[in-house]
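Q: Could you fold this chain for me?
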Amino acid sequence: MIKTQPMETILTLEKRRILVIEDDTDIADLMSLHLSDVYSEVRLCHDGREGLGLALGERWDLILLDIRLPGLDGLEICRQVRAEKNYTPILMVTSKSSELDHVLGLEMGADDYVTKPFSIMTLMSRVKAILRRMSVISNRDAPDIPDRLNYEKIDLDVASRVVIIDGIVVDLTAKEFELLRFFLLHPGKVFSRAELLDKVWGYGHEGYEHTVNSHINRLRTKIETNPTKPRYLVTVWGVGYKLGDNT
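A: Sure. Below is the predicted structure, expressed as structure tokens.
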């Protein structure tokens, strides 16, 4: 069930194609109703196998993907979409009772998640945040967004979303990539967990700072030689995190 509440009227439509794969037709219809008010095209699908065919067969700006689906579950769909060369952002829809669901979704490469029941305001803010981030990343003409980022032995390619550390390709989830990219853009600067939620996830969410902690810890296991004594992602006690040493 989705909590509804008044929304600020949006006067202009953005040209975006969104695929909603959700087996609860009432929830899917409500999503489509509000998303269609803002974005150009919203397609609904209620079956996992059909949804996978649509996800892989057409170009989408965003996929809203329920985890519990008939035919094929959302985690497998996410895995197969992430195996494709072209990157499509994914917003997972999970059950509030299952903390493991959204963790697995993020590990499979989902960009973000919402848990049922959720408000339409929350859903729309997550959608807007993901599309805004992808728009910035895909803007190749922006002078302040370099194609490649480097720090010591870290080499990050924005376009191909490939990270190489000391000559070895490192497999990162979508959010781990965005988190590392953000730190590489601001070496030596300290960010609080709340700031990282706002800048990387695209929204403030009081009580969800532990999400930042878990992503930092997982990212450290992939990029640090010794995660217990990090060289890159350094904890500034009582404040937050930074990339490297600014002294």
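A (continued): The domain at 14-138 is CATH 3.40.50.2300 (Rossmann fold).
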